[in-house]
Each structure stands twice: as structure tokens, then as C-alpha cells.
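Reopening this one. Same input as before:
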Amino acid sequence: MGVLNVGFPLTLPAFKECSSCKVTGGRCGYDAGQSRIVCFNKQEQLKKQKQGAGLIIGLVTGSCLLVLIVVILIGIRRHIPILRRNHGTDDRLHVEQITTTLKSTLVTKYSYSDIKKMTNGFKEKLGQGGYGSVYKGKTSDGRLVAVKLLDKSNNIGPDFVNEVATIGRIHHVNVINLLGFSWNRSKQALVYEYMPNGSLGDLLSNEDLSLTLGLARMLEIAVGIAHGIAYLHNGCETRILHLDIKPHNVLLDQNFNPKISDFGLAKAYSRSRSAVTMTAVRGTIGYIAPELFMRNIGNASHKSDVYSYGMLLLEMVGGNKNAAGLNKNTSFKKSNTSSEAYFPSWIYDKLIEENDTEITLEDDTNSIARKLAMVGLWCIQINPKDRPSMARVVEMLFGDVDAIEMPPKPFFLSFTPAQHDIDVASIASDHSNNSALPLASDSREM
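Same output, byte for byte:
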């Protein structure tokens, strides 16, 4: 009690904190739970709340970005395998498309092991081309076949599909018979009936054999080829353009009957259309119709095959010694001097020369040579409208040579590889009438 009566000093530091709190606009109070003086300041509380909210937003945003990055990385990792698998899917779709298209035909689908077995391990090679090799084979029932093994590295998938889908629908005595095909991601093969006498190109290069056969047999071959092309143009559900008619694409059976082959560049279109849309030149130099690389001449159509056939006829005449002469002193045989000139013009001049001599054509060989030459010259007229249809060609070949009017002199047009880059045959047409057949749009042998 004495202390209370006397008194003692007391220091309250919290009062100083309260003074500071009041200066900032706060209100001083006591927190019983923490046994300390606290300052209740609204501005400070809002500042702390904002800082806390910013921290939370930052954490959430960072987490979202992290998740997004992980998802992107996973997607990229999975994307490449998906693309790779899609190539296999595309291949399977091609096969399914072909199988569906040909389900009503007798074309057989073989495995690669079947192909290897029927060729005895690709033992006997018949020939080599820019798109693969041809081997002799035998099916399980003993039938001889020719197996065309395609080179996958040349990206010929579209040509393969095109050939199978096109020729698999065709059944004509003058068109090669496709017996089957094989497809996988690395190997593609076509199985045809075997042609023991090779190609017309082989025959024309064998002077002894062509001499033995004679022009009368050559005329029969020419007629057979014309029948085959006429069938492609008018005998099928859709009009089919071969677009690569040449001697090496005409095969000969054991009786030298011709069969048109190699439909890798074929294009089909509706009969209601007079022309076909093309985006690139296709065919073989020397046989390509001028309208395929010169837009102002005309449209690509069945007359383009007629032009190629005409060049084939002229080669049959000019490459055969039995075309010896419209008379004994004149020959259609190519010579060193004629090779320097435009060959069709040279043949035309020979025909005119014989007309001027007024010689009567009593010899059958002379008559056949003249007929083949005149029909060939009509077929290669520059304007497609001036060329006969293949049906008319057949009539001319069966008819009398004197009934064939003398054709105009052919005009020379040269084709250079540089012209291949021109959009030469972009022809307006009704695309709704396009054939359901898969069509090739690239070029070859340019």
C-alpha cells in the first residue's frame, strides 16, 4: 500500500504506437488473442488484400501457362506419328477404293509374296522402263503372265491407281487384259496377260521380222489398234483418253494381234463433254498432240489420241522396208537426209511426188503403204477438228485408197521441255460431270 501511496513510474510504449496509428488515420485497439495493440487502418488493409489477390492471380496464371505448354508438347509429340500413320491410312484407302471400284470385275488382288512366287523370285526379266521392270511369271493354274513391278521411289501411286481402276473395267480384244495387282507401302505390281511377241516398237526395230510379216500384216495391226482406241473413246461407260499411244505401248500376242497397254496416264470423262480439263502436258515427245501444249490450237479431247495414232501409223510406214515404194524408185523408208526434215512432211512430199507421176497402183504393197500414209497424215492435222474420229479411221483403213482424199500438208510444231511449265490445257468444263474414276494429272517421259 505504501507503494501505491508513494507512487511509481509506468511506461506504456503501446501508446506511442497508437499515436502513430492515429496519425495515419487509423484507430488503435487491443487484440486479446495475441495480447498486443493493433492499428485498424482501412487503407493498409486494402493494400494487403490487393497484394494477396495479385499473388493468387499470378500463381493461377503461371499454372495455366504451364499446363498449356505441357499440352502443346504432348500434341507435337503425338502429331508426327499421326502423320506417319496417315500415309499408311492413305495407302489403305487407295486399296479400298480400287477394291470397291473393281469388285464387279475378275481382277485379283495379290500379296507381294504371291508376286514373288509367280515370278520365281523375279528370275526372268522381260524389260525395263522408267517406272519399273517387267518380269515373266506363271500363276498357280499355269497361266503365263507379265508382272510389272513398279518403282515406289518415283512417286507413281496415282498412276498405279489410275491404271488399275481404268484398265480393270475394260474388256476388249485389242486392249491388254489386267489379271491382278498387288499393293503395299513399299511395293506395287500389276499382273497382265503375257504377250510373247513384245511390243510394236520392238517389231518396227527388227527389220528382218517386219520384212517377213509384210505390210498386209502391218495393216491388220493398224486396224486392231484403231479398233481398241475407238472402243476406249466410244465403247465404255465413260470416254477414256489413253494420252500415250505409241509403238512401245502396243503389245503383240502370239498371233501378232495388237493390244493397247500402259494406262498410267489415261484420263476418263463424261461422254456429254467434248473436251477434258488438264493441268499438265502428258505423253511422249513425238506423239503429243499440239493442243496439249499450245492453248490456242484447241482443247484436249479424244482427237488428241487420234494425233498420236497418226504418228504411230507414219512410223509403221516409214520404219518398214516393205513400205518400199509407191513405185520401185521411191521408198517411204527413213533416210539420213529425211531425218533432218520433219518426217510427216517428207512422207507428204513422197505422196505428192507419186501423184505427179500418175502411176497406177496395181501392187497391193504400194496401195497399203499409201493408205497408211494418207490416213496417218489426216490424223496429225494441227486443228483437232480436221482430224477424223477413230471410228472414221477404221472405215478409211477398210476402204479403198482411192476413196481417201489427199490430206493437207502437215504443219511442223516443235515441243520443248520448257513448254511443259505452261498451263497449256486448262479447259473450262462442267466439273460435275467428272468420272468417278481416279484420274492422273501429272506428266511422264517429257
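So the earlier flakiness isn't reproducible anymore. For the record, The radius of gyration is 41 Å.
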